[in-house]
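Q&A log
Question type: sequence-to-structure
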Amino acid sequence: MKSLNPERPSTIVLLTLGVLVGCFLVPSLAQVLALTLICYLAYLRFSRV
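Response status: OK
Response body:
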């Protein structure tokens, strides 16, 4: 499979898979991971500014 955005690291894909697996394993854990990802993305945006 050719990556559409080669500039972005594969870490994002791993995080996405981790969240999906968490959804199947523990719903509550998935919510925690989702909040963590949102906070992480928000931190990146604020850190850039």
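Response note: DSSP finds two helices and no strands in the chain.
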